[in-house]
Amino acid sequence: MTLVGSKQVRVGTIDELKSRGCIVVSGDGHAIAVFHHDRGAFAVDNRCPHMGFPLEKGTVRDGILTCHWHHARFDLCSGGTFDPFADDVAAFNVTVSEGVVWVDPSPTPKDRVEHWHSRLKVGLEDNNRLIIAKSVLGLDSVGCEYTAALKAGTNFGMIYSNEGWGQAMSILTCAGNLLPDLDEGDRLLAMYQGLRHVATECAGKAPRFVVDPLPAGETRPEIFNKWFRSFVEVRNEDGAERCLRSAIDVGLSQSDISDMLFAAITDHIYLDSGHTLDFANKAFELLDHIGWDHAGPVLSSLVHGIVTARRSEELSSWRSPIDISSLVWKARKALPSALEEGQTRKVTWDKEDDLSDVI
Ligand code: FES
Fold this sequence. Notes:
The protein has 359 residues and is an alpha+beta fold.
């Protein structure tokens, strides 16, 4: 092997290449497979980007290189794949001079950040765990913050499930919450777990079409609050979502928006066994990570769940043989005065251990 200048790697004569079909050379840290095809020479990284099978052992037909392990196919000229599970393979420039073939071992430069973002999107769309795992590692290797993967998973999860926020988005948020307490390897694993749950939950679902905010008009928090609760009360999803989107769009504060949501969620008893409340909490935690500018799509994804949730007072188990719901309403009515009264009897309470024993 001879180097010309700083870069070019000698492959062999064109006749040698023609008779052998493929010659592997190394340069710049790459093993490069140089193929002869249709009177031309083409070079790609010898490592299949799917799982590393040597591409020199593949087959070239009609300009398409097929890897023999899982049959990923690549355009020999550009390295682009026809099978997104595999990713594009790096292609290298080849020149033929005086009957000798040379390859430039520096691959065509590409934006690595953009590349791993687009691979993560493919992984989420295909619900392909290998691509998701590689993309999490890839984004980390190019110095992206953990929020990059979190935002990508959020954007995907907000669009590709017509049921809106579900268990997977809560898992992704939990992964984000755990990151500060995990060591590096576990951080990547946690992010992968969150993302792969999002991909699985969205797989096969229809996309969600988001509702636009109202034209500029109402800005009073108490009116939005009233509207939202009344739409939820009658299970009117479009009205509730448009109201919430508008309230966010006109710039109501985070606490006004959370009042709206949590008031509507607690207007009835124990929605969906508490999941609705838990999901709303998680959505706000997610926004703490990725920023309030994502509030529109993130919070409106809760609306479907809030509107369609099972209200526990509708269940016979809450009504019979004892009407638990009426006891709850009674207790709730008594709560403000009990709290007020409690203010005057404030003491330090240190019976946590006794309570946990009882529980
Ligand atoms: S390793 Fe090449 S297709 Fe799987």
